[in-house]
């Protein structure tokens, strides 16, 4: 009885992290929310890994996992993106706002709400996953944890760019900040990520049945590549690792002509 509930307890830890992350978002602490998403992602990996190791997988555990994921990797990233768009929503009135004058939203206050299509598509993604037998060993569409990690990384990158302050009239943003944190860019990113959640793209899963090289080549290469990205680029390496995950999967599909990745 105790052994059977160990994975479920870890899943509940994932859910708890999601709840705390929502509180952090309400408090304006997107960095804290991003770290909690990262902790939850580790727990999400461990619950499945331990369930397989202990041979205690169950339908209840699968449903509980999806419910926890909906909060942590569906609702939380939607709130994070809402906050990023809201903080950077600033329509420049050329040339009147040049010279340090504060800019205004010009009636575009509804833009941040576009971010909440992320939880909607996350729910669709999780529902499809629970009812698609093809996704027992791999994924079809971007997994919600990967999407949440991507958006959490944006919050971490944003936290290190004090120049990207909302509505301060500062037109001298760093290039990366001026590109990534433009509301239009964030909205386009929201739409693309939401599409990827339900896109019919086979993606390999980081599920190790064993730790031998044979059969896990793409997993080991991807992990090594991700470590290098994080080491040299730090927070910027996180979204690049997620993009690499998609590209590695597409490349693997093309090389082996096999959509059911083992």
Describe this structure in words.
The structure is a single chain. By secondary structure, the chain is an all-alpha fold. The protein has one domain. Helix content is 65%, strand content 2%. The chain has a two-stranded antiparallel ribbon with strand order 1-2. Helix 1 packs parallel to helix 3 (59-88), helix 3 packs parallel to helix 5 (144-159) and helix 3 runs antiparallel to helix 7. The chain is globular. It starts with a helix and ends in a 6-residue tail after the last helix.
Summarize the structure.
The chain has 262 residues and is mostly helical. The protein contains 9 helices and 2 strands; from the N terminus they run ααααβαααβαα. Helix content is 65%, strand content 2%.
Write the SSE topology:
Layout: H1 2-26, H2 30-54, H3 59-88, H4 117-130, E1 138-140, H5 144-159, H6 175-180, H7 183-198, E2 202-204, H8 217-233, H9 237-256
Antiparallel strand pairs: 1-2
Number of DSSP helical runs: 9
Strand content: under 5%
Structure summary, number of beta strands = 2
Can you write the helix and strand succession as a string?
A: HHHHEHHHEHH
Mean pLDDT: 84
Structurally, the number of domains stands at: 1
Q: What structural class is derived from the secondary structure elements?
A: mainly alpha
Percent helix range? 55-70%
Largest sheet report:
2 strands, antiparallel
The strand line-up of the biggest sheet is 1-2
Give the terminus-to-terminus CA distance. Answer: 31 Å
Q: Spans with pLDDT under 50 lasting ≥5 residues?
A: 91-102, 164-173, 258-262
């Amino acid at each position: 009885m105790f052994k059977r509930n160990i994975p479920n307890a870890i899943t509940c830890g994932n859910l708890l992290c999601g709840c705390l992350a929502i509180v952090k978002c309400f408090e304006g602490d997107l960095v804290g929310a991003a770290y909690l998403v990262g902790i939850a992602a580790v727990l999400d990996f461990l619950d499945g890994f331990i369930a397989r190791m202990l041979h205690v997988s169950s339908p209840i555990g699968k449903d509980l996992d999806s419910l926890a994921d909906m909060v942590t990797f569906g609702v939380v990233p939607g709130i994070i993106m809402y906050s990023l768009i809201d903080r950077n929503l600033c329509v420049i009135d050329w040339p009147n706002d040049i010279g340090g004058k504060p800019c205004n939203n010009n009636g575009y206050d509804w833009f941040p709400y576009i971010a909440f299509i992320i939880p909607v598509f996350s729910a669709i993604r999780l529902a499809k996953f629970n009812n698609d037998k093809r996704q027992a060993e791999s994924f079809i569409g971007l997994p919600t944890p990967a999407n949440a990690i991507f958006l959490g990384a944006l919050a971490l990158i944003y936290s290190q760019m004090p120049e990207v302050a909302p509505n301060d009239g500062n037109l001298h943003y760093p290039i990366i900040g001026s590109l990534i944190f433009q509301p239009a860019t964030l909205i386009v990113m929201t739409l693309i990520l939401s599409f990827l959640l339900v896109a019919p793209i086979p993606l390999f899963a980081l599920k190790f049945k064993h730790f031998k090289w044979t059969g896990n080549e793409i997993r080991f290469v991807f992990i090594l590549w991700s470590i290098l990205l994080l080491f040299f680029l730090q927070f910027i390496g996180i979204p690049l690792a997620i993009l690499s995950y998609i590209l590695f999967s597409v490349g693997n599909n093309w090389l082996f002509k096999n959509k059911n990745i083992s």
